[in-house]
Amino acid sequence: MPPVEMKITIGNIANLASILAVLATGVIGYGKLQQGQEDQKDRIEQISKQQKDAIEDLRISEDSKISSVEKARSEDNAAFTHQMDGLISQQNLVNQQIVNQLQSIQSRIDRLIDMKRSEIPQTTTVR
């Protein structure tokens, strides 16, 4: 099969520019999501340290005070779990959007290749 010759046109350049813009949007969104997860992790670690310090201080106190701290910790853990579930859902959505965009790009590329192939004459020379 002879090599396919593609001409660089304004349309092709515009298509490539839009593809790059879509990819950049996905990458930026994913970066922001990762930063949010890192910030959340730092906050969780800080809360965990504060809780450990509070529990250590309360050990010399009454049992009722310790149980109230454990209740607060349980509530914080539930809130953390809820927040992490939300972040994971967001990340899954971003990942799915990236996959969809890449599939769309692949489809566009396949159509361009098919279009260029159809422009090449399909004749053979018999001797």
Report what the structure shows.
The protein has 127 residues and is mainly alpha-helical. The protein has one domain. It is built from two helices and no strands. α1 runs antiparallel to α2. 1% of the residues are buried.
Task: Tag the structure with descriptive keywords.
single chain, 127 residues, mainly alpha
Shape annotation: rod-shaped
Oligomer: single chain
Distance between the termini: 19 Å
Parts with pLDDT < 50 across at least 5 consecutive residues: none
Number of strands: 0
Biggest β-sheet strands, sense, barrel: none
Integer average pLDDT: 80
Query: How many separate structural domains?
Result: 1
* Share of β-strand residues: under 5%
* Rg for CA atoms: 28 Å
Count of helical regions: 2
Following the backbone from N to C, one meets helices and strands in this order, namely: HH
Helix content: over 70%
Return the structural class: mainly alpha
What would a concise description of this structure say?
The chain has 127 residues and is an all-alpha fold. Helix content is 83%, strand content 0%. Helix 1 runs antiparallel to helix 2.
